[in-house]
Write a structure and sequence with these properties.
By secondary structure, the chain is mostly beta strands. It contains 2 helices and 7 strands.
Length: about 130
């Protein structure tokens, strides 16, 4: 992941300012735990390990200096494997890549279907 900085600050403050970033993982039952906490500057990359249970959605709350910046909620990490913007692009974070993820059952089914021969992909109706 890469920190793009706090968009509410003037651009001159971005060069040397270090912001405290905290990432909480959220389970389906509502419990949360910290998967990353540290001080980062604009454009700093950082990594963390998702601790999602196979039965839970991939859900994160990303905070800057104690204020919620954005949330991520998807069936699993697979959606973000190629990186990219979070939400509508207003987030201060950018996902660069996701490695060593475990796909959910829904994504596993779609992977299996996409790797099947063409005649097996067809849905037959009567």
């Amino acid at each position: 992941m890469r920190y793009r900085s706090d968009p509410t600050l003037p651009s001159t403050a971005h060069n040397s300012r270090r912001d405290e970033v905290t990432i909480f993982q959220v389970a389906d039952n509502g419990s949360t735990w910290i998967v990353f906490k540290g001080f980062v500057k604009m454009h700093d990359p950082f990594t963390f390990k998702s601790q999602r249970s196979i039965d839970d959605r991939f859900c994160l709350k990303l905070e800057i200096n104690g204020y919620l910046d954005t949330t991520i909620s998807a069936c699993c990490e697979r959606l973000y494997r190629g990186g990219g913007r979070i939400d509508d692009g207003d987030s201060s974070f950018w996902i660069e890549t996701v490695e060593q993820y475990t796909s959910c059952a829904k994504c596993n089914d779609s992977i299996d279907l996409s790797q099947a021969p063409d005649d097996e992909k067809m849905i037959h109706t009567t």
